[in-house]
Design brief:
Number of helices: 12
Number of domains: 1
Number of strands: 0
Strand content: under 5%
CATH superfamily: Glycerol uptake facilitator protein
Largest sheet: none
Amino acid sequence: MEMQPLSEVEKLAFKKVKIFRQSLLRYILRSMLASMFIGFGVIVAFKTGNYFYTEHSPLTYPMAAITFGAAIILIAYGGGDLFTGNTFYYSYAAFRRKMAWREVIQLWISSYIGNILGAAVFAFLIYTTGLFAESTVNGFLLSVVEKKMQVPTVELFFRAILCNWLVCLAFFLPLGLKGDGPKMFAMMLFVFCFFISGYEHSIANMCTFAIALVLNHPGTISWGGVIHNLVPVTIGNLFGGSLLMAWMYYFVNKPFLDDYEDASNPLEKG
C-alpha cells in the first residue's frame, strides 16, 4: 500500500502551507525558484537537442528529454514551489479534510503567479547572456514553441492531464524509495516519459514561451499563442494532479488511511 508516501505528501503540504501563512512573499519567492529551476532544465534540454536538430537526427527529442530531467532534481532537492505538484499535494490534504478548499485555491493561485514571475525573470537573464541569440542555436526551441502554439485546444487539455499525472508520480513514487540515487533515477525516468511523449506541462511551457518571446522569433510565436496554449494546459494539469492523483489515491486507500494514522500515532489515539 501507499500509506507511507501518502503520509509524506500530507507533511509536505503542511510545510508549504506554513510558509504561505507566515509570509506570502517567501511563498512567492519559492514559487519563482521552482520555475527558474525549470528554466535551467529548458535551457540544457534545448541546447543539447539543438546539436541534433541541426543535423536532422532522430535523437533530437530523446537527448532533450534526458537532459530536461535536471529540472526535477533541482526542484526536489533545491527547494521550490511548483504549481503542478501543488495540485496533488493540496488537493490530497483537502480530500482528507486537513485543509480548506478555499485556502487550497489561494495556494494554487499564489504558486502559479510566482511561477509566472520566475519564468519572466529567468527569460530576461537568458536574454542578457546572448546564449540563444543566434538562429543556429535557437532553431530547435523556436520550432517546438511554434508547434505548441498551433495544437488544437482539446488536444492540449488531454495532453496536459496525462502530463501532470506523470509529473506528480515523479514526485510521489520516490517518496517510498530509500537512497537519493534511486529517487533521482525514478524522477528523471518519469520526466523523460512525459517529455518524449509530447505531453504539455504549463510551467515548463511558460518558461519556454518566455524565452522564445525575448528572442528574435517569427510571427507565428505570439502572446495569443501563449494564451491559446496555457489556458487549456493549466486546466488539464489541474485535473491530472487533483483528480487522477489526489482523489484517486485518496479514494482507493480510504479504508486504510485512518488505521494507518492511528498506528503511526498511538499516543494521540489514547
